Amino acid sequence: MTRNIRLPVLLLALCAFFIECKPKETPQQITEQIEIEEPQIEEQEEAEPEEAKNAGVQVSYQIQRPLSGLSGRLPGFGVNIGEIDPVNYKDADLDVLRQMGADPYLISYLSGEEHYRAGDFDKAIIEYNASINNNSQFAEAFFSRGNTWLKKRDWARAIDDYTRAINMEGGKAELYNYRGFARAERGEVKLAIEDYSRAIALNANYTDALINRAHALYEIRDYDGVIEDCSRIIKLEPMNASIWNRRGSAWYRKEDDDMAIKDFTEAIRIRSDYAVAWHNRGNAWYNKGEVDKELADLNRALALNPSFASAYISRGNILKLLGSHESAAADFAEAERLEKR
């Protein structure tokens, strides 16, 4: 048996007799789609995305341009990390493989996959190390070890393993997307964008990479790029409320409030309990001088999420301008209390 034979080829042969093979699951959406807060355009709905599609990062942009003297740094725009939980060749019987004379590197690799799925990342890394020591050209082990370092938030080691896997198998879009995520987490946004772009060049319909690139572009204030990527995502996933909200945020930053309101409204139509979109649309209404609509949307946002500190600040600013100083002070105090929790 050749040492550098690809794992899927070997397992397909073995599976004919003993195993039900399952290919590595591709990540779903570093937004959704982890929803996080964009400019407080999207509150973080999930701390870390489940394996569901587009469960990566969410978006949330704080978008009250003319009002707030309390404006701060925009929250991180969620990155899709739902892909970081591949389930590879599930239920492989390692004892059977040993009896069949499978190479040690393969046994160690599959054992690492079992530990990975069980959430024991330290043991997974030990097994991946053993696999790599037995076959230094086995790209799949570097890929999986990189995913494990990502889980442990060791960005430098994850990047190194993804790079080594890319050097062996540069045609996998997922490798570039994952490395881009690690680079983004390390603050290397431009390098992350390069990786996401390579992933998209390999797979034009790679939604997760498009979502992640849109987030990174937002961070460098390339709002035209955000709009372009979000438009592509919407064609692929027209019911993705987070992306409508994200594109609306980009329109807002370009000071096109009419387009922003259209996108926020569509996000709300798709998901009526989307507090961040209600908040964002309210701020866009304010910019058009529609204070009553602004207050109605902010009240709705707070009814949906009473812990939405940014919405209290936005409403407090409006109430202050309207002369309701006592109510405004109460909103500011509540926002401060929530932010200190």
Mean pLDDT: 78
Report the β-strand fraction as a percent range: under 5%
- SSE sequence, one letter per element: HHHHHHHHHHHHHHHH
What best-fitting shape do the alpha-carbon axes yield? elongated
- Number of separate helices: 16
Radius of gyration: 23 Å
Structural class: mainly alpha
The share of residues in helices is 55-70%
Q: Could you describe the largest sheet, including whether it forms a barrel? A: none
Question: What are the low-pLDDT stretches, counting only 5+ consecutive residues below 50?
Answer: 1-89
Describe the model.
It is a single chain. With 341 residues, the chain is mainly α. The protein has helices spanning 7-15, 94-99, 104-117, 121-134, 139-151, 155-168, 173-185, 189-202, 207-219, 223-236, 241-253, 257-270, 275-287, 291-304, 309-321, 325-340. The protein is built from 16 helices and no strands.
Gist of the model:
The protein is an all-alpha fold and 341 residues long. It contains 16 helices and no strands.
Label this structure with key terms.
341 residues; mainly alpha; 16 helices; 61% helix; elongated
Walk me through the topology.
Elements: H1 7-15, H2 94-99, H3 104-117, H4 121-134, H5 139-151, H6 155-168, H7 173-185, H8 189-202, H9 207-219, H10 223-236, H11 241-253, H12 257-270, H13 275-287, H14 291-304, H15 309-321, H16 325-340
